[in-house]
Amino acid sequence: MNGFPGKGLLDGLLVTAKNFVGSYFDGHRKERLFTWQYPEERMKLPERSRTFPFLVYDGSPENLRCTACKICEAECPPQCIYIVMDRDAHGKPLHRPKVFTIDTSVCMQCGICAEVCPFDSIKMDCDFERSRPGRFGELLAHLSDLLKSNEYYHQIKPAEAARVDATRRPIKRPPAAAAPPGKK
Amino acid sequence: MPDGVALTLSVLLPIGIVLGVFLTIFALLTWAERKALGRIQNRLGPNRVGPFGLFQPIADALKLLTKEDIVPQAADKVVHFLAPVVTVAPAFLILAVVPVAKGFVPVDLNIGVLFALAVSTASVLALFMAGWASHNKFSLLGAMRAVAQVVSYEVPMVLAAVVVLMAAGTLSSVGIVEAQRGFGGWFICKPWGLVGFVIFQLCAMAEVARTPFDLPEAESEIVAGYHTEYSGFKFALFQMGEYVAALTMGGITVTMFLGGYLGPGSDLPKIGWLVSACWFFAKLGIIIIINIWARGTWPRVRVDQLLGFAWKMLLPLSLVNIVAMALWHFAPNKIAGWLVSAALLVAAIFGLVKINAGKAFEKRSYRFIS
Lengths: 184, 370
What we know:
The structure holds 2 protein chains of 2 kinds.
Chain A: H1 7-25, E1 53-57, H2 71-75, E2 81-87, E3 93-103, H3 112-116, E4 122-124, E5 140-141, H4 143-146, E6 147-149, H5 150-156, H6 158-167
Parallel strand pairs in A: 1-6
Antiparallel strand pairs in A: 1-4, 2-3, 3-5
Helix pairs in contact in A: 5-6
Chain B: H1 3-40, H2 56-66, H3 77-94, H4 112-133, H5 137-168, H6 173-178, H7 191-207, H8 219-222, H9 232-257, H10 272-297, H11 303-330, H12 334-356
């Protein structure tokens, strides 16, 4: 037996008293009080975190990287991606998507689409606030919802975006590609 | 004013004041307890409703009031309904004999302490009613635990109170407070009073089933114990009964050991009642802090530890405490009384701990690991 009877109980009380008093003086989220007060405070998510794919564009949405090669559509395990190539009046492919939809309710956030994309176009987002008011149409992400700028990509994943920018080659498209991409 | 009206008012007014004050304290207590527990566990605690989350009790009450009242099909409907009511009643009944301020006690019974101890035990009846009527195994287990616990802890509790009665020579709660006048007159300042206070406080915590003695509603073992099958406002009544019982038992502890409403300034001619009320509630606050602190620190004990602690440790210690009080009383002078009773109690505590200490596990040796 160490000390007097009940010493263990008093030691325990001392520990909790230290926590109680310390929580007022040790400062917010330094030594104690680790909780992020979510709606007011947001934690910066780690670069490798992923929630849902998005399509990167350079400068303006017309200048998107996607060429509608459909590799991601083919590789997607739950087959949640649907792509239709945009064509000009003569039926010549314009190497950009006319339709690009991803079904949120089917996507399992594996990131395989981002890994297989040869044009560094489809990438995984960190945005986790993806709740929608409906079950059907609202959960289907269209091309306009998926397009996000390269600056946004740099913002959420700086190191990865810099690596991509250093190695990426510009996309060659037929001259008719100046027209705005069709939506839906 | 006719005599009848005056009489009715004189009866109803103290009841109203005491009920109002204690219900307000109850509401604030639930908030303070959650805040303090949060800080102890490095959280912020409730902070969404109102400034610092102060309106949380109101939000909780509204939520519980609007919830559906579910009664199990196989339940004994009448007893199931009565149990929460019976829980709250004794908690408030104890208030009748607690002297809150100088000259302010709802009823100055000449058997006040006996009444308080008897009524506080009655709460176990409600717990068993709830457990039995729910027709649920978890409820019944919780109720059985509650009965075993309260019956066991009642014994050392009464014996711890006996020393106070021996010292004061009266069972009246006001009489006990008045017997603690003078510098160092509070019973907690004497060796037998200190030991009695600790025993009484531990037993009071066990009696109202607060952590570390919350076995009747141990959520990690038996869902919610006796109130598993209660929802809505009946559940709120159980919570209220428990908290108010903790408050009122604290009031009894203050009255018996901490000098009740006595303190510097409590005898002033005009404002004495206010100063004495402040003293009473300050002391009650200390008891509440002890309760919350213990709840935030100590883990729940096992059933065998619970009963063993009551019968093997507290009961013999309270008996020795009575002997110590007698030696104190018959000692030729004060110093001799102090020395003899303190020595006896210290020896008893160390002896009991030594006798009760379980066999320490030997250090294991493994054949292939050096």
